[in-house]
C-alpha cells in the first residue's frame, strides 16, 4: 500500500461542551466533523499523542490538528480483514479472513495477541501472535449486542469495546454502551452512552488522557467524555 500521509484538505471545526450529571464521565464535548462528513467510525492517537485520527464513511482517515483546530486528510482504509504490516519489509500479511463485520483490532501491551470483534457474530476473537498458540484464534467473549472497534485502555491489560444493543423497552431503539474488558474476556465496566447517542450506533470508544473519545457513523461529531477533575 502506498504511503498516503498527505495533508491536503483543511476543515474548520467547532468544540462544543455539555455537562452531564450522574455519570462517571460527566463532561461531554464534541469535535465537529467537516461539513458534509459523517460517521467517525474509529478514533486513535499516535505515539506522540497526536490526533484523534478518525475513519469516516467515505473511506478516508482524517487527523485532528489541535493547533489549527481543524481536521486534515491522512489516509484511506482497507476493511474486512485482519492484516499485519511490517514497516521494515513493507509486506502485508493476512492473519484472518471472512470476518463478518470485523472491528478493532487491538494489540495487547506485550504484543502476544490481538483482539478483533465480529459485529454480526456478536463476539470478540483473540488471535495469538506469539507462544505455543501463535497463529491460532479463539473466542474471547460472546456479547449481548453488536461490537464494533476495540481499543486499549490506559490501564495495562484492559480494553474498551464499542457495543450496540437493541432495546425493546419501552420502544425499539439502539442503546450504545462502552464496555471495559480485560484480555481474559472478563467484563469490568459497562458505560451507558445514550446521552448524546440515543438510537445511534457507536463505532469506537478510545481512552486518552483519562477522557473517552466516542465515534459514530450516525453523527457529525466526535464525542468526548471526561471525568470530574
UniProtKB/TrEMBL annotation:
Superkingdom of this protein's organism: Eukaryota
Any GO molecular function: hydrolase activity
Keywords assigned by UniProt, alphabetized: Glycoprotein, Signal, Vacuole
One Pfam family named in its UniProt record: Str_synth
Chief place where the protein resides: other
Signal sequence coordinates: 1-24
Domain Strictosidine synthase conserved region: start-end pairs: 80-131
InterPro entries: 6-blade_b-propeller_TolB-like (IPR011042), Strictosidine_synth_cons-reg (IPR018119)
GO CC field: endomembrane system; vacuole
Subcellular location as annotated: Vacuole
Family: Belongs to the strictosidine synthase family.
Record protein name field: Strictosidine synthase conserved region domain-containing protein
Amino acid at each position: 500500500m502506498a504511503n498516503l500521509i498527505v495533508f491536503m484538505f483543511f476543515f474548520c471545526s467547532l468544540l462544543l461542551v455539555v455537562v452531564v450529571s450522574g455519570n462517571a464521565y460527566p463532561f461531554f464535548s464534541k469535535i465537529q466533523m467537516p461539513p458534509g462528513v459523517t460517521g467517525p467510525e474509529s478514533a486513535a492517537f499516535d505515539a506522540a499523542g497526536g490526533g484523534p485520527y478518525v475513519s469516516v464513511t467515505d473511506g478516508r482517515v482524517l487527523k485532528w490538528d489541535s493547533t489549527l483546530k481543524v481536521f486534515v486528510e491522512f489516509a484511506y482504509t482497507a476493511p474486512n480483514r485482519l492484516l499485519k504490516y511490517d514497516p521494515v519489509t513493507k509486506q502485508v500479511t493476512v492473519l484472518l479472513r471472512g470476518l463478518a463485520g470485523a472491528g478493532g483490532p487491538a494489540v495487547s501491551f506485550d504484543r502476544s495477541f490481538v483482539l478483533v470483534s465480529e459485529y454480526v457474530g456478536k463476539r470478540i476473537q483473540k488471535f495469538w501472535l506469539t507462544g505455543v498458540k501463535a497463529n491460532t484464534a479463539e473466542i474471547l467473549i460472546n456479547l449481548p449486542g453488536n461490537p464494533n472497534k476495540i481499543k486499549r485502555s490506559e490501564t495495562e491489560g484492559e480494553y474498551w469495546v464499542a457495543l450496540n444493543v437493541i432495546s425493546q423497552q419501552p420502544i425499539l431503539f439502539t442503546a450504545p454502551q462502552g464496555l471495559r474488558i480485560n484480555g481474559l474476556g472478563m467484563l469490568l465496566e459497562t458505560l451507558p452512552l445514550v446521552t448524546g447517542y440515543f438510537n445511534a450506533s457507536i463505532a469506537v470508544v478510545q481512552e486518552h488522557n483519562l477522557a473517552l473519545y466516542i465515534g459514530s457513523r450516525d453523527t457529525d461529531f466526535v464525542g468526548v467524555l471526561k471525568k470530574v477533575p
